[in-house]
Write a structure and sequence with these properties.
With 833 residues, the chain is α+β, with helices and mostly antiparallel strands. It is built from 30 helices and 27 strands. Helix content is 37%, strand content 19%.
């Protein structure tokens, strides 16, 4: 929005500023007003509206507030259907939405709160709260009979106001009704925030200075003195004043729609206001039962039609205008004609406070259908009306509207996604809410065990992997102070060693015999020797280093392995050597295995020779397993029979990678990160499927990172995938597959954004494409403007765009961008010199 350039003249201060309208906060979410009124505060649940995955989910967000209004309307025991007589029994309510910008501070009890706060010291998030305040009705004596009635009457005479016991009956009814609707009791801290939102939720008793079309708030005496010294009339000449903010409060004059479906985006008028800087929305109204509104409409119909006809006779109305007005009348009557018509908010006062000084209020809200006008020369009074427990009415624009106008406005929209705690994958794009991934949430909630991260080349997939692993290893596991992480990187010449080592991890390279020794040896990682022997025999049989002699060794290999293990062997190679030395295995069977183990690091990874090599399940930090300079030469799916020896070795290695890593992490709250997951999906589908079946009971979170999402669909793994993260994917088929995998409709708009390039234009006219989900950089400087966007589909079924935000130190360390790699190398060379 544009801001004022012309300084207004401040009116004289005619009255004393009221710091708060709430005298006392009472237990159970109750507030005592300065006028003696008693209010019940309840918190309305916040869920994604704009980012709702489907229309049904959007309607579900509206339901609690709609139900609350229905319950409150039903409590009005009106004896007449005439509004003039019935309104004395209407329930008085105030809806207050507060949206504050706060520094990111992880929730109390977050296992890595200190690390995250240190990593994001300047990160701003939005603290949003929606409170429904209901004015309670007092009944003399409450529930205590004649004696309490006498005491209540006496207390009223002596103290003034109504004793709290007189509200017990109404309190119980309203409290139960709100609980049925899913509204909860706000904490005292949340009520304090709502009662001082104009001061960022710190405390309510601030000094304010009203100008004609905006209001200045000062949080301490120094800020007041600085404003006084600069001259209070011309605020545009002020220096930067700490602990000072400006608000612009506007009134809702009306809407640019008549009657639209609650599912229509036009109905969500509040969401656009929040996106454009609204820090608070206050809606004060009485609730009228639908039957009274229906009767009122019937009485007014003849008068309304007579007025239309009279205007036509006087040539003040065209026929088309007449038809439109009659059609509007009919639509109004249809809304209330059914037995389940919405209650009506009568004399509804809607006030909106924006952060800063707004010049053109008509531009506020972007696509919002709300028409606003600044509360000129009523800024202070407007603030008083927006306070909890307020009896002030400063708004000249009052409306009668169906409760669905508020319930479907999107006022309860908050784009949240992810688990309660865990590793921070980023912040929601719309509302800057932290999005966490817990390594144990799926297993503890009996959810499907796999997570899939989909992204094309250059989408930021590998950085997301390293950032998640770095955080997760700091989360305490069930049996240790750290949650073990295994990263399997099958891409040739890919190397994340420096990032892993900087995080206190270890690196195992499968292109080195010594490093690879038995890292995926089934005897070493199996839960029991018997299981290890069976797996080792099956693995060697699938590789078949004996060629045409395989059949005659099928029994001998079992005997040899079992004998070796029974005599203390800790790995396959050692077991065969023991069996050979004791005459329990033929030389022709053992020798090819030992020779291949000395020649091939990939085979050596599955067949350990040295018993002293550390087992994979010992290390508690990050373990990076990379193929290094080797190449996983895998057979084509369906072409395993007759495949060359090294292809059979690579296939067996993939299988052992998947199963061995999972076994090493069993019961430790660990995570296995399978990068380039198409390798595992294509070559070891059976093992990945087995991993899907066993991961929950093992307490392991497998995360698959891939650019070929269609492989997961072909492998029929959808029954095991509970959540995922869709990063930019340029390929049309793969982007559609990613949407289908997480039950997202592949609309043209969604696909266009997933596939969009990061830059638009050519040459000197190049500019970042804000519609793209790719990370955006300044074309001139290369500086990151915005991180990559991913659609996070979580365990509850929400799917919300999230910006991957990485700490600068980690980004520099882990970036795979060629320029960043070059800068790291130059920096390392400079240190060596």
């Amino acid at each position: 929005m544009a801001r004022n350039s012309k300084a207004p003249v401040a009116p004289p201060l005619m009255d004393v500023s009221v710091p708060t309208m709430m005298r006392t906060l009472l237990p159970g979410g109750r507030g005592l007003g300065v006028d003696g009124s008693l209010w019940l505060f309840r918190k309305v649940p916040l869920e994604p509206v704009v980012d709702a995955k489907s229309i049904d989910e959007r309607v579900n967000v509206f339901t609690p507030l709609m139900a609350a209004y229905d319950e409150l309307a039903a409590m009005s025991h009106t004896t007449s259907n005439r509004r003039a007589l019935a309104r004395k029994d209407y329930r008085q309510t105030k809806m207050l939405m507060v949206n504050l910008h706060k520094m990111y501070n992880p929730e109390n009890g977050h296992p890595i709160a200190g690390f995250l706060k240190e990593s994001f010291p300047q990160q701003i998030t939005e603290k949003r709260l929606l409170i429904l305040a209901v004015k309670l009705s007092g009944k003399l004596g409450g529930n205590g009979g004649f004696r309490n009635a006498v005491e209540s009457f006496t207390e009223t005479l002596v103290v003034g106001g109504t004793p709290l016991s007189d509200y017990d009956t109404d309190l119980g009814r309203v409290d139960a009704a709100m609980a049925r609707c899913g509204l909860s009791i706000p904490s005292s801290q949340e009520i304090a925030v709502a009662n001082s939102w104009w001061n960022q939720g710190h405390f309510p008793d601030t000094v304010d200075l009203p100008h004609s079309d905006h209001l200045h708030i000062f949080a301490d005496a120094k800020a007041v003195r600085m404003a006084d010294a600069a001259g209070r009339e011309d605020c545009h000449a002020w220096p930067v004043i700490p602990n000072h903010r400006t608000l612009t409060i506007a009134t809702l004059e009306g809407f640019e729609f008549d009657f639209v479906s609650p599912t229509s985006t036009a109905a969500h008028w509040a969401t656009g206001l929040v996106e454009d800087g609204a820090v608070a929305i206050s809606i004060s109204a009485q609730i009228e039962p639908a039957k009274v509104t229906r009767a009122e409409l019937r009485r007014q119909r003849k008068r309304y039609l007579d007025d239309i006809n009279e205007r036509i006779k006087q040539n003040k109305m065209e026929l088309s205008e007449q038809e439109e007005m009659v059609r509007t009348l009919e639509q109004v009557e249809e809304v209330y004609a059914s037995r389940e018509g919405s209650p009506t908010l009568v004399d509804a006062s809607v006030l909106v406070a924006f952060d800063g000084e707004v010049e053109d209020i008509t531009q506020a809200g972007g696509d919002s259908a709300a028409n606003l006008r600044i509360m000129n020369f009523r800024q202070r009074q407007a603030l008083a009306e927006m306070m909890l427990c307020s009896h002030i009415r400063a708004n000249p624009n009052l409306h009668d509207m169906p409760t669905q106008n508020i319930a479907a406005s999107g006022i309860q929209s908050l784009s949240t996604v992810g688990d309660k705690v865990g590793a921070l994958i980023g912040f929601t794009e719309r509302d800057r809410q932290p999005a966490y991934v817990s390594p144990t949430a799926a297993s503890t909630a009996d959810g499907l065990p796999l997570m899939l991260v989909a992204g094309g080349t250059g989408s930021g997939k590998t950085q997301a992997l390293l950032w998640l692993a770095t955080q997760m290893t700091k989360i305490p596991g069930p049996r240790s102070a750290r949650s073990p992480q295994v990263i399997v990187d099958p891409k040739t010449e890919s190397d994340h060693s420096k990032t892993v080592l900087a995080a206190g991890g270890q690196v195992i390279s499968l292109d080195d015999l010594q490093h690879a020794d038995g890292v995926f040896d089934p005897i070493r990682f199996a839960r029991s020797p018997e299981v290890g022997v069976d797996m080792a025999a099956s693995m060697l049989g699938s590789i078949n280093p004996w060629g045409d002699d395989k059949a005659k060794y099928e029994v001998s290999i079992f005997v040899a392995l079992r004998y070796g293990v029974a005599n203390g062997a800790k790995c396959v190679g050692q077991a065969l050597q023991i069996a050979l030395a004791h005459g329990k295995a033929p030389q022709g069977m053992v020798q090819p295995v030992l020779e291949l183990a000395e020649a091939s690091p990939m085979f050596r990874a599955c067949v350990g020779m040295r018993p002293e090599s550390a087992a994979l399940n010992i290390f508690d930090g990050i373990t990076l397993i990379k193929v290094g300079n080797s190449h996983l030469d895998l057979p084509e799916p369906g072409a395993i029979e007759g495949a060359p020896l090294m292809q059979r070795v690579c296939l067996a290695l993939v299988r052992m990678m998947v199963f061995g890593s999972a076994m090493a992490l069993t019961g430790r709250g660990g995570v296995i990160h399978l990068d380039e997951a198409w390798v595992f999906l294509g070559a070891g589908k059976a093992e990945v499927e087995r991993l899907g079946r066993l991961a929950r009971s093992q307490g392991v979170l497998p995360v698959l990172y891939t650019q070929r999402v269609s492989d997961a669909l072909k492998a029929e793994l959808t029954g095991y995938i509970s959540r995922g993260f869709i990063l930019p994917i340029e390929d049309k088929e793969e982007s559609e597959a990613a949407c289908r995998l997480f039950n997202l409709e592949p609309t043209p708009q969604r696909l266009a954004r997933i596939r969009a390039k990061a830059i638009v234009g050519e040459g000197e006219s190049q500019a970042p494409n804000t519609n793209s989900m790719r990370a955006l950089r300044d074309p001139s400087t290369g500086k990151v403007i915005r991180g990559a966007i991913g659609i996070y589909a979580d365990l509850t079924g929400r799917a919300v765009p999230v910006e991957v935000v990485l700490p600068p130190t980690f980004l520099t360390m882990a970036s795979t961008n060629p320029d960043d790699i070059r800068r790291r190398q130059e920096a390392e060379q400079a240190v060596l010199v």
